Amino acid sequence: MEKSISKLIELAKQVRVTEKQRRAQRRSFVYGNTAFENPDITRELVDEVDAEMTDGTGPHDAR
């Protein structure tokens, strides 16, 4: 079993995440960690803020 786990770890190291996948993961993380404390947080709101931060034109621009 240890050999198969080691092989899986080596294969996982070769996975390359696209920017689109990274953004989707970030939005999922943000939603999952905020929505349970604040029911006003929606997936749509998270998507909007992410888009604003990414294109640099919104009031939430992090630059």
Describe the SSE topology.
Blueprint: H1 2-13, H2 19-34, H3 43-55
Mean pLDDT rating:
88
Structural class of the helix and strand makeup?
mainly alpha
The biggest beta sheet reads:
none
Helix share bin:
55-70%
The 3D shape can be described as elongated
Radius of gyration: 17 Å
Total domain units: 1
Low-confidence stretches: none
Number of E-type strands: 0
Number of helices: 3
Report what the structure shows:
The protein has 63 residues and is mainly alpha-helical. The chain has one domain. The protein is built from 3 helices and no strands. Helix 2 crosses helix 3 (43-55). The model has no long low-confidence stretch (mean pLDDT 88).
What are its keywords?
about 60 residues; mainly alpha; 3 helices
In short:
The chain contains three helices and no strands.
